[in-house]
Amino acid sequence: MNTCKNCSLTFEGKYCPSCGEKVIENKDFSMAHIFGQAIGMITNLDSKLYSTLKLLFLRPGQLSLYNIQGIRVPYMNPIQIFLISNVIFFIFLSDIDIFRTPSVWFFQEDFDGIKVMEHVRQIMIEKNLTQENVAILYDQISSNLAKSLLIFLIPFLSIPNMVLHHNKKYQAGKHIIFTTHYLSFILILLVFILQMAMTFSTNKWSAIIPLLIVASVYYIISNHRFYGERWHISITKGLIFLIIFVVITQIYKMLINVLTLYTM
Fold first, then answer.
1. Tally: H helices and E strands in the chain
2. CA-CA distance, 77 to 45, in Å (whole number)?
3. pTM of the model
4. Tens digits of per-residue pLDDT, 140-183?
5. CB 17 within 8 A of CB 11
6. Of 168, 179, 167, which is closest to residue 223 (Cα–Cα)?
7. Angle at 29 between CA 28 and CA 34, to 5 degrees
8. How many Å apart are CA 189 and CA 187, to the nearest integer?
9. How far is it, in rounded angstroms, from Cα 172 to Cα 48?
10. Is the model more confident about 132 or about 96?
11. Please, which residues have CB within 8 angstroms of residue 77's CB and are 6 or more apart in sequence?
């Protein structure tokens, strides 16, 4: 008989039937066992990542549908894939100002009603910095905030889906799962399209139109598959959501700008 070190239950076998804790044996500390576990975890992660990204890109909405149906083991959970997408985005596009306004544009006497330079001059006096130093500090902080707070876009972008698909069948959590997968796709899509634009064009904004088209088509197909709505309804809701998506991301961008300015 074994006694679980975690919950104190007495049981037979290698795993506690109550909490799942494993009975520790000497062989668990052998180099072969430790490296075997590490390789197994990496292999499992690679397999899940490949399966998740394949479904995310090739079958819009299917990953969300599988998740709410209970088919989860072969795939990464929504937050995991979002965090990976976030890391990919900010590794490859660390200098792209999609979710913040850089100092070169933001440092004006009046930026959308915000007295930016008045506050900048105050910071210069209080911290004995030049305007150039304040600009560098602003860019560093705003970039870090834009990365770390991006996850908070998920609940706000879920609200339009809750309104557009008001149905007792879909609890709030299901809309959040759908939105998380959609935003994960958008982040990786941004990397691909903006990298292509910077490779073949000197103007990164040339990517905006194809980005909006792909984002709309992806949402429409996802909506049709996940919510089971007819195509004409999915198209209408897709166009409405795209407008709301742009508005919410612009509000997020402004909040990052202001939060950075007033916390420096």
1. 10, 2
2. 12
3. 0.78
4. 899 888 888 888 999 999 999 888 887 767 788 899 999 999 99
5. yes
6. 179
7. 80
8. 5
9. 26
10. 132
11. 67
